[in-house]
């Protein structure tokens, strides 16, 4: 079936291991845009940092961020769809994090450009210290996250070492059950994992389905490309689901099309193969 909409994860998919867009990938995406095919970024990133990537590619399509909890227009920050996380569930995240010795981050400001709110960061959590030091995501410190949570935020998050965050993810599942969704974004080679919790109605797939309906495009006409656990529902929704070669090995058993790694222009390979039907693509 003809591809009429292209949905792209950012980290590990669009970006290479240096967090850059390669020249081949940039050129191929330009060809997709010139062909009139909408390109939608679908990411676990916070809106404010994902927006910079969309602007770099001159995209004017809706931007799906926070694992589908928030969809906004890139140009004017108009909020298209917001699936808030219950403040009561968010407070349970904080309790589990405190019990497990994990640092909790509240992601907030759905109608602005976005911000993070923390109580503080453990001195040994180098991953989170580095993350909140990035200039593209403002972070504010409060004395008590429980007291701050008098409203429904976008999502709750934590970041840390690979094994410790696996254990934290299991503890959250045991505590929260089906009351919310817990997503893992793992980078085993960097000993790092994000754990994000969003409302039970939120997912990359649900947000992508809404955008596809907006354009009058069926799931069979959507191609989605991703590399991580939080991309699986989106890949399953799409008629053409493509997994990057840098994905963890267990994910490669899911029956998705496989392409090269993000350092091998795997995204461009997949576009050549499935969108343009070029020989040697993928």
Topology diagram in text:
Blueprint: E1 5-8, H1 10-14, H2 23-34, E2 39-41, H3 47-56, E3 63-65, E4 70-72, E5 79-82, H4 87-100, E6 105-108, E7 115-118, H5 126-132, E8 139-141, H6 145-148, E9 155-160, H7 162-176, E10 180-187, E11 192-199, H8 204-215, E12 222-226, H9 232-237, E13 240-243, E14 257-258, H10 266-274
Parallel strand pairs: 1-2, 1-12, 7-8, 12-13, 13-14
Antiparallel strand pairs: 3-4, 4-5, 6-7, 6-9, 9-11, 10-11
List keywords for this structure.
33% helix, alpha/beta, 5-stranded parallel β-sheet, Rossmann fold, 14 strands, globular, Hypothetical Protein, Haloacid Dehalogenase-like Hydrolase, Chain: A, domain 2, 6-stranded mixed β-sheet, 282 residues
């Amino acid at each position: 079936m003809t591809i009429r909409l292209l949905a792209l994860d950012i980290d590990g998919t669009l970006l290479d291991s240096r967090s850059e867009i390669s020249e081949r990938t940039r050129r191929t995406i330009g060809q997709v845009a010139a062909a009139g095919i909408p390109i939608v970024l679908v990411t676990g990133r916070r809106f404010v940092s994902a927006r910079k990537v969309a602007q770099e590619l001159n995209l004017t399509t809706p931007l799906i961020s926070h694992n589908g909890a928030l969809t906004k227009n890139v140009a004017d920050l108009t909020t298209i769809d917001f699936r808030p996380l219950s403040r009561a569930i968010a407070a349970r995240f904080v309790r589990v994090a405190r019990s497990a010795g994990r640092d909790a981050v509240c992601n907030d400001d759905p109608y602005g450009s976005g911000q993070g709110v923390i109580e503080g960061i453990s001195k040994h959590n180098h991953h989170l210290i580095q993350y909140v030091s990035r200039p593209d995501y403002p972070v504010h410190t409060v004395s008590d996250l429980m007291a701050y949570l008098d409203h429904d935020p976008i999502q709750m998050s934590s970041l840390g070492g690979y094994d410790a965050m696996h254990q934290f993810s299991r503890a959250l599942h045991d505590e929260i059950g089906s009351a919310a969704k817990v997503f893992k974004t793992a980078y085993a080679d960097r000993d790092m994992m994000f754990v994000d919790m969003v409302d039970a109605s939120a997912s990359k797939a649900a947000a992508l389905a809404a955008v596809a309906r907006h354009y009058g495009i069926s799931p069979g006409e959507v191609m989605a490309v991703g590399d991580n656990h939080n991309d699986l529902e989106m890949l399953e929704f799409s008629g053409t689901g493509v997994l990057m070669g840098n994905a963890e090995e267990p994910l490669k058993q899911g029956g998705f099309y496989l392409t090269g790694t993000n350092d091998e222009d795997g995204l461009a390979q997949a576009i050549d193969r499935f969108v343009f039907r070029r020989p040697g693509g993928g």
